Amino acid sequence: MLAFIHWDVNPEILPGILPVRWYGLLFSLGFFIGTWIMAKIFVNENRPESDADAILIYMVVATIIGARLGHVLFYQPDYYLQHPLEVLQIWKGGLASHGGAIGIIIALYLYSSKRPDQPWLWILDRIVIPVALAGCFIRFGNLMNSEIIGRPTDVPWAFIFERAYVADPLTPRHPAQLYESITYLIIFFILGTIYKKKGHKLPQGILFGLFLILVFGMRFVWEFFKEDQVAFEATMELNMGQWLSIPAVLGGLFFFVRSLGKAGTPPPFPEVNPNEDKLKK
């Protein structure tokens, strides 16, 4: 008999004492560690470190609003048209990562429009590094919540999600949340390593394009291992997550190829060597 992993973790950190969930903690950690990483990047490129805090505000608001509206519009539009006030009840669940990505892209466009020294693609190339790490934390939070579970399987590392809201909670399933979480962690290291080696010499848009290709390309793959999120997906050849990932990957290919064509061209604003003053002294 196969020894499957019985997953019976309480989603609350201190049940009965403090109703704070692991998901909320990991979600918050993703933002705050991401802000710390962006602050380091800004210092490295001689940009105002305080701007990392401004980006945090843009990111939090954009992620929550975008992810919520993405779920409402992409997954349950009929339901929320009948219950419009429930759109605001985000504590009941229902956040779509594709909507969050759209929200972030729009928010950072607004952010960069006020800062000529931080063009839109320049900031996107840098923000995708901590965003990949945040995705790792959020998917691990989904695991702690026993949600977004995988399809039934008999692989030896299958999880039995005893707290999942399904008809057959004792059926072994793919830990799809863990697959995605590990994938995003690897992507974080890939993007971070490229940035560390090339830094500001990278053509604008290349890391952003690579992020879209890797994240949503792998999202397309892992959707084959997941249970459908909503009932209407059962009638679809590809589920909603996969259909939404296709334009994201195509967009990533556009920015990646476009940036390769501009490799070697000077940046649209003067780069500053953070060690310049030290060298003069």
Automatic annotation (TrEMBL):
Entry-linked Pfam families: LGT
Broad class of the protein's primary localization: membrane
Keyword Lipoprotein: yes
Pathway membership, UniProt: Protein modification; lipoprotein biosynthesis (diacylglyceryl transfer)
Residues annotated as binding a 1,2-diacyl-sn-glycero-3-phospho-(1'-sn-glycerol): R139
Biological processes, Gene Ontology terms: lipoprotein biosynthetic process
Signal peptide start-end: none
Residues spanning the membrane: 20-43, 55-75, 95-111, 123-141, 178-195, 202-222, 242-261
Keyword flag Amino-acid biosynthesis: no
Membrane topology designation: Multi-pass membrane protein
GO cellular component terms listed in the entry, alphabetical order: plasma membrane
Superkingdom of the source species: Bacteria
Enzyme kind, highest EC tier: transferase
Family matches, as InterPro entries: Lgt
Family listed: Belongs to the Lgt family.
Function: Catalyzes the transfer of the diacylglyceryl group from phosphatidylglycerol to the sulfhydryl group of the N-terminal cysteine of a prolipoprotein, the first step in the formation of mature lipoproteins.
HAMAP family in the cross-refs: Lgt
Protein name as it appears in the record: Phosphatidylglycerol--prolipoprotein diacylglyceryl transferase
Gene source species: Flammeovirga pectinis
